[in-house]
Amino acid sequence: MLETSARLLRLLSLLQTPRDWPGAELAERLGVSHRTIRRDIDRLRELGYAVHATAGTPGYRLGAGTGLPPLLLDDDEAVAVAIGLGTAAVSGVAGIEETSVRALAKLERVLPSRLRNRVGDLRSVTVPLSGPAAAVDPAVLTAIAAAVRNRESLRFSYRSHDGTGDRRIAEPYRLVNSGRRWYLVAWDTGRDAWRTFRVDRLRLHTPNGPRFTPREPPSADLVRYVSERISVDPYRYRGRFTVHAPAEVVAGRMPPTMAVVEPVGDGACVLSTGSNSLDELAMWVAQLGVPFEVHEPPELVQHIRALGSRLIDAAREHPLT
User: Taking the model in full, what pTM does it have?
Assistant: First the structure.
């Protein structure tokens, strides 16, 4: 029979699996009587764990309490949490860096050496490639999430990409994270249309606006919708190309923040992207190193011809030796 402290930890580990546990099954798993299980449940409740009794067949389920009690993690979960905290420490969520470092320090103090070595090995061979992200106050993210859940309109000031600012009232639908930035997809009541807002550019006003009835979302594919809003729509030129390479290959080189990639069969895909420069559009698709056709904008075709002539002339003037 397990000692009391070890048995409590084993019981807690079982209860953290999201299901209803009949008392008889818990007693069988731990090799004790049903009465002992009831006493152990009472001890866990005294320690701050919200263990609920289920209706019908006597059983138990671990729920959320008023405080955060200790959690039991298996090896893979502990490594995943440590890696996640390390990533959060350099994330674009303002103020979470110090909190993440403190939590990571607590976790690493209790990690067995074998797990600490796994985390250290991964960290030692990983180099972040992305640049600094636009910082977002975590309180803003949680306030938006609460408004989505409660179906409350948001009032906020918003600074557009050109630096101009105005006040908006919007019905929030979803938060989308691109890895470096946070975006809010919402129905803009003043413009009577769906809009995508960069969260780091908005400043919330309190109180929230009136409650609303949720609308049909702007697209069944929200990832594609947001990708179009941030990689195509804001720019002077909207490029659309057929690229003769598999969609997964092209998407690996043109992420959703840069382009929308759609497979069209036969190892080809349609790539849509935007830019304020025809030269930039041409170079982006050319650097993929595979054949492509231009569908729009019309002026890009002539521009590519002129650019190609300049490159050919440059090669003639400076032949290889």
Answer: 0.61
pLDDT > 80? residue 17: no
- CA 107 to CA 95: how far, in whole Å? 19
The answer to whether 205 and 155 have CB atoms below 8 angstroms apart is: yes
CB 270 within 8 A of CB 240: yes
Cα distance between residue 109 and residue 171, in whole Å:
44
> For the CA atoms of 156, 157, 161, 162, what is the dihedral angle to 10 degrees?
160
**Sheet architecture: strand order including 260-265:** 260-265, 268-275, 237-243, 292-296
Residue closest to 135 by CA, chosen among 184, 206, 198, 196: 198
Phi, psi (deg, nearest 5) at residue 225:
-60, -50
39-76 pLDDT, tens digit per residue, is 988 988 888 788 888 766 668 888 876 566 666 777 88
Largest interatomic CA distance in the chain = 93
